[in-house]
Amino acid sequence: xxxxxxxxxxxxxxxxxxxxxxxxxxxxxxxxxxxxxxxxxxxxxxxxxxxxxxxxxxxxxxxxxxxxxxxxxxxxxxxxxxxxxxxxxxxxxxxxxxxxxxxxxxxxxxxxxxxxxxxxxxxxxxxxxxxxxxxxxxxxxxxxxxxxxxx
Length: 151
Fold this sequence. Notes:
Layout: E1 3-8, H1 27-42, E2 49-51, E3 55-61, E4 70-76, H2 85-96, E5 105-107, E6 113-117, H3 120-133
Parallel strand pairs: 1-4
Antiparallel strand pairs: 2-3, 3-4, 5-6
């Protein structure tokens, strides 16, 4: 049975990469929650995306077995054309030709999109590279994925 829907509104973020924190849970629990969210996003298939007038609904799962928990995450359209996460997802799906299977796929050094799912280690490297490109002090990310982190 799907869990209650969560919502992520892009305009609530402070810049391109928002700080993730959960002070009431403590750092280890917050780190685990962020790690679980990364794994759930990496496991997202195109068949689990549905578009709504407000944005996009993603059906995320914490595993591939029959007892896996699923949760619906609604991502709202941004007010700015260049920073809208729904638009970025639509652009990626169009450019990659992804109509089914893994949404986040490996791209080789020549720009070819492979059929394989992107792995957690590749995600860490991408996040590190993107965070390093931001002005200093602009963003932080729980889980040690920042430029100086040990993730």
